[in-house]
Specification:
single chain, mainly alpha, elongated
């Protein structure tokens, strides 16, 4: 497959914009950590935006690979799952950080993990590379779910 750099850029930027808009709506999430006891294994606050920037880029690349893959009947379904998980991803930080609904955030992130697993499965049928690009995202979500639930439990 020949790389279409403009389209690849659009896919990456669109995924990054979802994260940026969610962060903008959420506001100062660093202050959140001052108000709540932190669970064991809590990374420093500066690490979150760095990791998310990389993960959104990987999501954009993987969606590009699916979109421009050779014709597949499963492609449309896979991209719908991608869009759904991206929308849910957008809402999680708003629920958890902005509104400080810790248990609702736990429910959202667990549903998000399920959607990402479905997305990876759907992507794998079309492009194993696209699927593998989302494994770090899934692992980070599992870790974030631990942090979310642990924060809810200890507070």
């Amino acid at each position: 497959m020949k790389i279409k750099y403009t389209e690849l850029f659009i896919f990456i930027v669109s995924a990054e914009l979802v994260g940026a808009l969610s962060a903008l709506i959420t506001g100062d999430f660093a202050g959140f950590f001052d108000r709540y006891a932190s669970p064991l294994l809590m990374p420093p606050a500066w690490l979150f935006p760095v990791v998310w920037a990389v993960l959104y880029a990987l999501m954009g690349i993987s969606a590009y690979l699916i979109y421009f893959s050779d014709g597949s009947a499963d492609k449309k379904r896979a991209l719908w799952i991608y869009a759904a998980q991206l929308a849910l991803n957008f809402s999680w930080s708003i629920v958890f950080f902005k509104y400080e609904k810790l248990w609702a955030g736990a429910a959202v992130i667990i549903l998000l993990i399920v959607l990402v697993m479905l997305m990876i499965t759907a992507f794998k049928k079309i492009s194993p590379t696209a699927a593998w690009l989302n494994v770090p995202y899934l692992l980070w979500l599992i870790f974030a779910a631990y942090l979310n639930i642990a924060t809810a439990v200890i507070n």
